[in-house]
Design a protein that fits this description.
Length: 529
């Protein structure tokens, strides 16, 4: 069985397989679309990591260019309307920005993401790799509709098995599987999200064969936390800070200037992981003058504090530790803290985590590959015990109070698989169907993302907000039962068994209590209507 793991990231995408000879994870390199990131360890040893920049450009006649070609050729500078970036974040969002009409085709975030991943899939097949299993990594706080999108995408790739795993949980497995019984916390801070997972593994039994010598383990997710903030927000904050300092507005620098400044901000941010100060020049297309953007580590840390990013990091760490403590696990019992994602290279981020857990526990070995490689460790995991990050609830409208209330089905923190049964009545004489507004409810921390008239992504400070996501993509109510004969008020009419299966899909089994007919059997809620 050939398994491919795809870590679809906001800034970079990493694809890996298990090598047939060594049984070790290997990151795939795709000529032309891969960017080689140079890494250096404490001993001074350097190596290169192939990643695919998550960029897509639509040329004339809907010809697609992706990855490093887009970045190196700076496609989109003269035709920004044809350039797509940060589309993973848009795909995750509840209310997505309208698609762009290009050469007669409407490109929304779902289509762009699908085309991007399918182009990479073609690159995999061209290397004579024939996958029969694909593992996609997803943010800890991903909602059900985002997971459904990946399941549908996996089915279109015609592989026999599709698995989804939290990004930070995958990275934890990468380390914990090697040391069964260990307690590992992963802080995954990438381009779009901050995810934390605390995972423990238990050795079950070794499996020996002439070709394999593996330890099979059971993994348990003990605590997790997340926030929708990442490196792309930091780039925007750097540019906004610079424009304030020179008393300029985004409108004054223009669309091309804004994109140039975002590229420079990313370069400065990366350089400041190694240097105390950095500067870059940029050419303003509006006034035809060369300008200089200078940034120090102290200034960057001040920006992060002002935007409450470091405070949000402290909160997510506190939340994970509090959840672990409620299960009888103290902070001192955490054996290893693994930093993953490009934003973990920021010195201020590392300093905060080092002071929180102690420098000796913290490691930053594979910041860009740990998630993809860790996803492959699922092949060695007999069972992964996980719990719900969000609550499932029925949303009810209260006409007297003019607001919504929520009837919980499964509370956040519930271990799944799990199930419960409700009996429902009809509301009016002759009612022919029972409809429920069912979705996920979560307390989210996010940088509010807004778009200006040119479609440029802007931002504000981090904020906590209660968020409800209907399981129906078009936000229409879910019909759980069609009634024949029509219902009469007063008596229980249908019995609905709700179930969250091992793949975190909400299913329903519906029985008509009057006719004793089984109307629906274990069908996904979002597809009932």
């Amino acid at each position: 069985m050939t398994t491919v793991a795809i870590d679809f990231g906001t800034s970079n995408t990493v694809v890996s397989i298990i090598e047939a000879d060594t049984k070790a994870p290997k990151t795939l390199r795709f000529p032309g679309i891969c960017r080689l990131l140079k890494m250096k360890n404490k001993e001074g040893k350097t190596w290169e990591i192939p990643v695919v920049p998550t960029l897509l450009f639509v040329q004339e006649s809907n010809q697609l260019v992706l990855g490093e070609k887009v970045r190196m050729q700076r496609l989109g500078v003269s035709q920004p309307y044809r350039l797509f970036k940060s589309f993973k974040r848009d795909l995750v969002a509840d209310f997505q920005t309208p698609g762009r009409k290009i050469d007669g085709l409407n490109y929304d975030s779902a289509l762009v993401a699908e085309k991007f991943i399918k182009e990479i899939w073609q690159q995999i097949l061209q290397q004579n790799i024939k996958p029969d299993q694909v593992i996609f990594t997803i943010p800890v706080g991903a909602f059900e509709r985002y997971l459904d999108w990946f399941r549908d995408l996996g089915n279109s790739l015609q592989v026999s098995k599709i698995q989804l795993v939290d990004e930070s949980t995958a990275a934890a497995l990468s380390y914990a599987v090697k040391s069964p019984g260990s307690l590992v916390l992963v802080v995954d801070f990438g381009g779009g999200t901050l995810d934390l997972s605390l995972v423990r593994t238990v050795k079950l039994s070794p499996t020996y064969s002439p070709q394999r010598n593996e330890t099979i383990v059971q993994a348990k997710v003990l605590a997790k936390s997340d926030a929708y903030v990442g490196g792309e927000d930091i780039d925007i904050w750097i540019v906004e800070d610079y424009l304030r300092r020179i008393s300029a507005s985004p409108e004054e620098v223009g669309e091309v200037g804004w994109q140039n400044l975002l590229e420079i901000a990313e370069k400065l941010k990366i350089r400041l992981s190694q240097e105390k100060e950095a500067k870059e020049s940029w050419w303003n297309e509006e006034d035809f003058k060369s300008h200089e953007l200078h940034l120090s580590r102290e200034q960057l840390e001040e920006i992060l504090e002002n935007q409450q990013l470091l405070e949000q990091l402290r909160r997510t760490l506190d939340e994970v530790v509090a959840i672990a403590l409620s299960k009888g696990i103290s902070k001192t019992e955490i054996e290893k803290v693994v930093l993953v994602g490009g934003s973990c290279l920021i010195p201020a981020v590392q300093q905060l985590i080092n002071s929180y857990f102690g420098r000796n526990k913290v490691s930053l070995d594979k910041p860009f590959e740990a998630v993809s490689h860790g996803a492959l460790a699922l092949t060695q995991v007999k069972q992964l015990d996980d719990y719900l990050r969000h609550s499932y609830a029925i949303r009810l409208w209260e006409p007297y109070n003019q607001n919504y209330t929520y009837y919980p089905l499964f509370e956040q923190g519930t271990k799944y698989p799990c199930s419960l049964t409700l009996k429902l009545k009809v509301a009016i004489e002759g009612q022919r169907e029972i409809r429920l507004d069912i979705g996920e409810l979560a307390q989210k921390a996010a940088a509010e993302v807004i778009f200006d008239n040119w479609g440029r992504m802007m931002s504000s400070k981090l904020a906590q907000q209660l968020e409800y996501r209907s399981l129906e993509s078009n936000h229409q109510e879910v019909c759980v039962a069609y009634l024949d004969p029509p219902g009469k008020p007063g008596n229980d009419r249908v019995s609905v068994q709700f179930e969250v299966d091992k793949n975190r899909v909400l299913l329903a089994t519906v029985r008509d209590l009057e006719t004793e007919k089984l109307l629906i059997k274990r069908k996904a809620i979002a597809k009932l209507s």
